[in-house]
Amino acid sequence: MRLFFKSIMKKLKLFWNKWKKIAYNIGLFNSKIILTVVYYIFLFLFVLIFKLKQIFVKKNTKNTNWKKIVSYTKTIEDARLQ
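The structure corresponding to this sequence follows.
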């Protein structure tokens, strides 16, 4: 009886070690696929929100903080006074 259980345990250990190798490879494959899908979903949502914001929020170009530059002619005397 004891010999019977030892042989079963050896087979189960062998099966378990093989299964761990297979499961590790399955996990690597699944993680790449799942992370890729999640990345593109978040990227799509971010771009969608950004584009909708651009569509619905109109820029008010009338009120700016830019000042017009007053240009004047420079002479040799102006250059000497620097």
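The radius of gyration is 36 Å.
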